[in-house]
Design a protein that fits this description.
single chain; about 280 residues; disordered N terminus
Length: about 280
Amino acid sequence: MTVANTVPRAAVPAQRSPRTNRLTTYDRFVASVSRRCESDPGARSALRSGVGKDLDAVPRMHQVIAHLVPPAADDRAQRAYYAVAAMIAEQTRRKQRSSSEEETEDAEGTEDAEGIEGAEDGASGGAPAGTAPGSENRAATLRPDYGSSLGAAFAAAVDVASGRERQMRRGTAESRLNVLCKQQITGLHRHLPASVRYLRSLGVPVDFARLLQDLLDWPRDSGRITRYWLQDFYRELQKADRRRADSEDAEAVVEDATATAGDVTATAESPEPSPGA
């Protein structure tokens, strides 16, 4: 089973590989928080009150989220769960102000998430349902626990061919991403909500399950995570540049063919000179 079926479609960019068991667990957390936010305005308000705040400064969040956080999680891990839940709540509020068409898509995505949660509960073995035996292991060998990183989201914000009305300047995206990559965990929690808010304001989906995983791993593995973020950012930009160049080349070929056909038609229609001329 792929990522796009585990959380609302509007919330996750296209994935390059199947979800691993670890990310599937975080997908269930994201789906649970999203459903609560969509159905309970009071819970959404309580979670949103914790955006950018420390654990000891968010008393309203505990009633809503404490049962979703692993009991053995230490303070850093708890803050990662709380931070992601707060950002989901903030974006859910923004999403509910959008068009009814988007709300319908979100509802469809939530139904998909419920179906996968049930499939995971009843599945045996490590691979997600619908995945060929061994395929997840092969994907994990190439890039363990990979989802769609924040770097890919920033690249999507820059892509002028995306069809969105607004895009982020490449220099702005690069600067914001580099600022995040230089942070210790406390600074990352401080800067991250504004970046996610900016991305979502442009209509760019954010993989909150992958973001949760990266926050959990940041204290011990920030170097690897920032490398993946930056690699994804530049790789996706290069793909977009190639697509744009290919499109321009194709348009030039069509224009040349059209011009040539017009010349041939004009020559064929021009009157022949009379014998006495």
